[in-house]
TrEMBL record:
It comes from the Bacteria. Keywords: Cell outer membrane, Membrane, Receptor, Transmembrane, Transmembrane beta strand, Transport. It is a multi-pass membrane protein. This is TonB-dependent receptor plug domain-containing protein. It is found in: Cell outer membrane.
Amino acid sequence: MVKKTILFIIVSSFLSFSLSSNFRELVIKKLEDYISNHPEKIYVQTDKPYYITGEDIWYTAYLVNGITHKKTEKSKVIHVELINEQDSIISTKKLHIDDVSVAGDFKINKDLAPGNYLLRAYTNYMRNSDADYFFQKQIPIWNLKNVDSLVNLTMSNSHTSETKETQLTEKPDLHFYPESGYLINGIATKIGIKIKDKHNRNITINGLIKDSNDETITSFKTLKFGLGIISLLPDINKNYYASVDIDGRTYKYPLPKTIQKGYNISVINNGSHIILKVSTNYHIGLKNTLLIAHQRGKLIYEKLETEDKNSYFIKINTSTLLDGIANFTLFNSSGEPMCERLVFIENTNNTVKVNINLNNETPTTRDRVSMQLNLKDKGGNNISGNLSMSITNTDAIGQSSEVENIKTYLLLNSDLRGNIENPNYFFEKENDAKRRYLLDLVMLTHGWRRFIWTDLLYNNTKKPDKFKPEKGLHISGNTRNLKGHKERRQAFTRLTFLGGVPYQEHQQSSINGSFKYGPFVFNDTIPVLIEARTKGFKSDENSKNRLISIHLSPSFASSPKIIRNDVLISNLNDSHEITNYLKQARDIFKINETYAKSTRVLDEIIINAKKETKEELRDQSMSDRTDYGYATHRMDMQAFKNLSHLSVFELLRMLPGVNVSNDSISIRNQGIPLIYMDGIQVNLDDISNLTGNDIDFIDILSGADAAIFSNSGNGVIAIYLKNGASISAKNIKRKPGIIDFTAIGFYTAREFYAPEHINGFGDNLKQDIRTTLHWEPKIKLTKMINKAEVSFFTSDSKGKYTIKIEGLTDTGNPVYHMSTFEVE
């Protein structure tokens, strides 16, 4: 009997070890798959955190492999959007990127409504994940014509400095986060504390932890950002709560319930080393458990425990690791993740120093300044990389060193759940114990957002990616019969780029008539001709050979969903700086107005005329776009901006006499009307993806009004797009088997303009008080060219200026630098 028992134990141990070993191989394989199918990340640096209508938003977008933070080998196309408070996309730019960064800009319309706008950037491949993985940044925009907007936006976005403890008058929102997720009977546990409501986040809260017998176990105190920590030895027979006194009232907050059995990972992070204690109170101990540590999917440590011990310690040297979040997960013998702990790695070997030398340390107004800069590693060696730089007026823009930047976004916010307030505080001081202590509390109180083990290990039915990485622009569509029901059919197609150096390509559409040309890389616009034949282009081009029609497809069937969670908040902590900025913006407006008047002085001319109203001018501009003049039933989208998010079918439904049912349209219940887009006849499919944001105005013509169009007995729906609203519908001309149009290429960023005050000249009649003194969107440092030189002119404003540099080294280390200089 004893021999059988021993044999059973040996066999069980062998099977358990075998299962654990196989599971380890599965984990390693899944991590390798995750790395090979890596996510992408985007960060966008702007020249300023806030703007006035009429200004320009200058930006540089960085696109990287989400694991290595180096150049991604997937996407080469970035979509950048400016979105208003009604979640309507008011402007979009499509950028082609060859390296890790690309420049762009938005011109802010002078008539734009004030509000908190959203700058969003993503790749097509990123659309396979939730939209909250896109880069998003809140950008307040003020309108000088609307004084109330200046006051309201300033007050709503400015935060007061740290609030005194006596101002706490209501119950704060307090949450508790046990290390490794649970309170476990008999296992000492650290518990992170976090104040969730923004109003009380900077208020020190003192409290007591008590058990169900109302006996005090320990006290606690919240620190900066509303974070705190306690240690507790839980007892399964007791419940625990936090007691906080506010204005003579006691508020109680229950702590999580204690569980009977479980696992725990406790961490001490001293910077150069991480010390972990893994423990359990199960009777078999930690036998056949697997500890896995990874950084963004890259394995950095593993331990398969073969003994039945109840705890063990691990010491990990961080000198060979990347900067960023490391995830420690403990799996039981069945392969289930039992507990998790996040740790932030700071490797001093990854330190990057930005060196800046000015040729003139104390420049005067309208003075030329030359700046030399380079990157050095810890050992003083030159580093190659890509940088972007803004130089702004400190009194108007500020120089808060705690706000979001490329380093905090790539290493913190892009991987954690929830928004991190003033994130650069946790990077500002090297080897600072308090800063590292608070950063570890951030790890305790925020979950890992990008990596979920249960999905990775057990989801074997993952569908292929719906959205593929874009390498360039595609021109796609389908070929159909010209007559009858216009069914899709296979045909021979030919694409020709006109203008410049001619380019031609042939392709046969598929069985269902689909064709797709590309990827192409071109900027601005290019004239395109697409032809289709049933028998090929070498055959006799008789009419039957050309009885085919061509329909283009939109680049996106629909815009990605807009999610405003975890939006990066701009630097709006100092209302004094915002007040200075708005005052300076008013002064610039007056200077420009005065200067414009002085350059338009003419001899007196007397003209007698009736001034047209804005409405009359708008009607005339719309009628000028049509072949028939004025339309009785017209929807002007400038007058219905609040409807710009609606689909074209929802808009048509609002027009008198138009019936829309299941994407079928009729006018006054007659047959199918003709549909024209920018004067070219199109089919229903061609307009199905339009929204009010794409449309300038819509005309409905019936009866005699529609007689200008042939076969228009059922009426005409004429849709006119905003300029550049559709790549596939701009200047379309159709003939049987031929489509001729102008394709819109990638956006080319404008060059930042600033006056050149050479010898005191350069717009010398005009005062220069710019808030953005200089914007340098791309600074490339290589092994051959390891020092860059940037030149600019100072303005007429004396005082302090802030130099802000962001970027990436070629090894994937994010770079952030901020310094100041004085103009005398």
